[in-house]
Amino acid sequence: MSARIPSLSPHIRRLYLVRHGEVIPPGGVHGVHYGDMDVPLSDLGKLEAKAAAQFLSKEEMKGVWSSPLSRAVYGAERIRDDRSGLMGEPLTYPGFSELARGAWRGKTKLDIGPDLYDAFNRAEPGTTPEGGESLDDIRSRVLSSRDTILDLLNDGESGCVVSHLWVTRSFISDAIGKKAGDMHEIEIPTASVSIVDYEKTDGGWKQKVVMMGEKPEAGLEKGQDLGN
């Protein structure tokens, strides 16, 4: 049974964070890294996105935003279905795109080298692939876009961001005080829902994680989730 979503306090701004569904990776091989490549959803991934939208169907929202990548846009469109009064453009933010893998696109962990791969996940200096970005880089741009949309909301209002694994990890890690090098420990299944509540203070945002990586019960088969 899916978890119950707590009610929203009038002094809080809430963000629902939804990850996209299962994808068809490059060459159809799970474990090949794609990152910010615009890979399509699988049939299962589309069903997962619809299940996440159904899970949130009773929740009031002022805006639904996403990464510009099609797998996230599809999920955002399903959440927008049958809703009225939502904020208009822009509906996508480049700051919510998935981690840029650079020279690691199309490679497996074995191709990259397990030691180098693990060192990157620990945010060790000098491990960022050519043409890619570091974990500090992605978290910085995600939080910048987060602050932009939080400023669009008033206290007592909610919005939704449909994005990716490393984007959601960036949101959650900042909320719970984890360093970039510990983000890889945060489990965020495909088409799962996370919730962070924000209270504006003189010192910035006071954050509380209300839900993390909740996968709605929909009777679907287990998807493949490798190579992000």
Brief account:
The protein is α/β, with parallel strands linked by helices and 228 residues long.
Explain this structure.
The chain has 228 residues and is an alpha/beta fold. 28% of the residues lie in helices and 16% in strands. The protein contains 6 helices and 5 strands, in the order βαβααααβαββ. The chain has helices at 43-55, 70-80, 109-112, 114-121, 135-150, 165-176, and strands spanning 13-19, 63-66, 158-163, 193-201, 204-214. Strands 2-3-1-4-5 form a 5-stranded mixed sheet. α1 (43-55) packs parallel to α2 (70-80) and α5 (135-150) crosses α6. It is globular and about 50 Å long.
Topology:
Elements: E1 13-19, H1 43-55, E2 63-66, H2 70-80, H3 109-112, H4 114-121, H5 135-150, E3 158-163, H6 165-176, E4 193-201, E5 204-214
Parallel strand pairs: 1-3, 2-3
Antiparallel strand pairs: 1-4, 4-5
Key descriptive features of the protein:
228 residues; alpha/beta; five-stranded mixed beta sheet; 6 helices; 16% strand
The number of strands is 5
Q: Share of helix among residues?
A: 25-40%
Radius of gyration, Cα only, in angstroms?
Answer: 17 Å
**Poorly predicted spans:** none
Compute the separation of the termini in Å.
28 Å
* Separate helix tally: 6
Which structural class do you get from the secondary structure elements?
alpha/beta
Can you tell me the overall shape? globular
β-strand percent reads 15-25%
The biggest sheet, with number of strands, parallel, antiparallel or mixed sense and barrel status, is: 5 strands, mixed
Order of helices and strands: EHEHHHHEHEE
Strand order of the largest sheet: 2-3-1-4-5
- What is the oligomeric state here? single chain
The overall average pLDDT, rounded, is 95
